[in-house]
Design goal:
globular; single chain; membrane; 6 helices
Length: about 140
Amino acid sequence: MIITAAIIAIGVFIKEFKSGDNLDTLNLEWIIHQLLFQLSFAAIMEEPLFRGFLWGYLKKYKLRDISICIIQALLFWFGHIYYMDTGLNFWIWHPIAAFLFGLIIVKTKNIAYSLGAHALVNTVAQIFMFYYKVL
């Protein structure tokens, strides 16, 4: 199911941005496709790594959840160093989002919630980047 969603999301993403026609007006279809794309790629790859494997590894060392939350947020932020030239996006929003994704794990003990939040945050960021030319 994830692979199918990924294939559909790639196709839609390429079609939408290749034509450029749909960038003039914000539409629900584009938002849904963007959310599927984000769920299929960034969130599905990054959440298991940072809030799954890394979290579990650090837990073995008897670190408190808040310490793990800070460490994973810093590593997540560093993992997005290629956004360094995007100003507030890199210096403010990435570390805040990473920390909040960690807090979701602390509260829910379930990576599915942080995965959904990650996809939603990325989708909102895409809306601001492509429609409002910010971030």
